[in-house]
Amino acid sequence: MTKCVIIGSGIVGLTTAYELNKTGHQVTIIDNQSTGQASKSAAGIMFPLNPWKNTKYMQDLCISGHEQYNNFFNTLSIKDKREINFEKKNLLIFGNDIESAKNWYKENPVINSSYIKKNLNSREKFIKESHKNFLEIENINTLDPRKLINFLRNTLLKNNVEFKKSKIEKIDSFLRKPSNNKYEFIILCAGVWSNHILGNKNIRLKPIKGQLLHFKTREKLIDNVLLYNNYYIIPRRDNRIVVGATIEDVGFDENITSSAKIFLEKSVSEIFSNSVEMLSLEQTYGFRPYSDKEDPYINIDIKNERLIYNFGHYRYGILTAISSAKIVKKLIS
Ligand SMILES: Cc1cc2nc3c(=O)[nH]c(=O)nc-3n(C[C@H](O)[C@H](O)[C@H](O)COP(=O)(O)OP(=O)(O)OC[C@H]3O[C@@H](n4cnc5c(N)ncnc54)[C@H](O)[C@@H]3O)c2cc1C
Q1: Parallel, antiparallel or unpaired: strands 26-31 and 3-7
Q2: pLDDT digits (tens, 9 = 90+) for 30-73
Q3: Is residue 270 scored above 70 in pLDDT?
């Protein structure tokens, strides 16, 4: 059993703690707030959206993430699944991406898919007639990331994982502090802020802001997750819907913008017939941790073998959290 400290309690940090705790490691988590910034803002699609645009490493991490979550969900009770809003849905892909998606899924038969034409109304009656062609991917997982955060925190607390509230300024001073010598491994999971702490000139991380719109409809609008060009629409319980997301390279700008709202509302009206009435509930934003190499950093620091990286998951940090945590587990064993 080793003593590990994890910096960052977003889904990546919490899941890393969960995996290490399960195999008997003693874990402390440090965060300057109580929730993951990007994680609490995520949409909760536990599936790659357009994997053909990603590196092979990221694709493998996503496919493995999909499988690992299937295993994880199988261990949960019905009550726990309800608590995190876990649901199996089908993903309907429309628009420009159908061909690329079709080719990718043909080569990656681990995931079932079927190509359907002119049969849309039996699947989704509110979608405009003009969107007849779509690719259907069966049984993808969805959940509410905010609820997954709560679930993981509570599970970790029950299993004696220690949570500390503190801001880590620089990793060098953290490592120099004698009281931190007790930690055999320091695992950095601070999302887009990881390199503020690390200060490694060879690593380039930046925030890519994403805004989501949460709304309600009077009657149930959709059964499936829809992916249409640059955005997705996810059904939740009680006629709630989430539409997202914008992709904004605007630094750490924390403003909710009316231009994002208009873009997302227009995206919804592009796909549904005019009769749909949307009651706006909430607009949220998050900073995706984008790394220039387009892969997350999951490795041992070259100068200090006690220091492990696990950050930079960009659009897929929820989906790949378990597969990334398992890599970390191997690195420290
Ligand atoms: C709009 C949107 C939709 C998304 N949808 C999906 C999706 O459907 N599926 C999916 O897989 N991914 C999705 N993502 C991506 C996903 O949210 C991220 O990849 C993931 O949340 C990154 O998690 P993280 O734990 O690395 O970072 P974060 O959740 O940002 O957590 C980092 C933590 O580090 C802490 N921290 C930072 N600095 C310090 C410091 N100096 N000292 C101590 N603590 C510190 C922060 O307080 C924070 O709690 C989405 C992202 C956005 C913005």
Answers
A1: parallel
A2: 999 978 899 999 999 999 999 999 999 999 999 999 999 999 99
A3: yes
- Which residue's CA is minimally distant from atom 27 of ligand 1? 191
In sequence order, the β-bridge partners of residue 46 are 141
Residue 312 half-sphere exposure toward CB, CA atoms < 13 A: 19
111-167: pLDDT as tens digits? 666 655 556 667 788 888 788 788 888 889 999 999 999 999 999 999 999 999 999
Tokens of 270: 């592009």
Please count the residues of the chain: 333
Write down the pLDDT at residue 186: 98
Burial 39-72 (b: 16+ CB within 10 A, else e): bbbbbbbbbbbebeebeeebbebbbbbbebbeeb
Nearest CA to ligand 1 atom 16: 317
Q: Distance between CA 57 and CA 48 in Å, rounded?
A: 13
Alpha-carbon span 71 to 332, nearest angstrom:
23
| HSE toward the beta carbon, residue 82, CA cutoff 13 A | 3
DSSP code of 77?
Answer: -
Residues touching ligand 1 (Cβ under 6 Å) are 7-13, 30-33, 35-39, 41-45, 167-168, 189-191, 193, 197, 210, 212, 244-245, 286, 288-289, 311, 313-319
pLDDT of residue 198: 97
What is the per-residue pLDDT for 126?
83
Residue with CA closest to ligand 1 atom 20: 317
Q: Which of 6, 11, 167, 212 to mutate to test the pocket of ligand 1 (most atoms within 8 A of CB)?
A: 11
Structural domains present in the chain: 1-86+143-204+293-333 (3.40.50.720)
- Cα 189 to ligand 1 centroid, rounded to whole Å: 9
How many beta carbons lie within 10 A of that of residue 169, not counting itself?
11
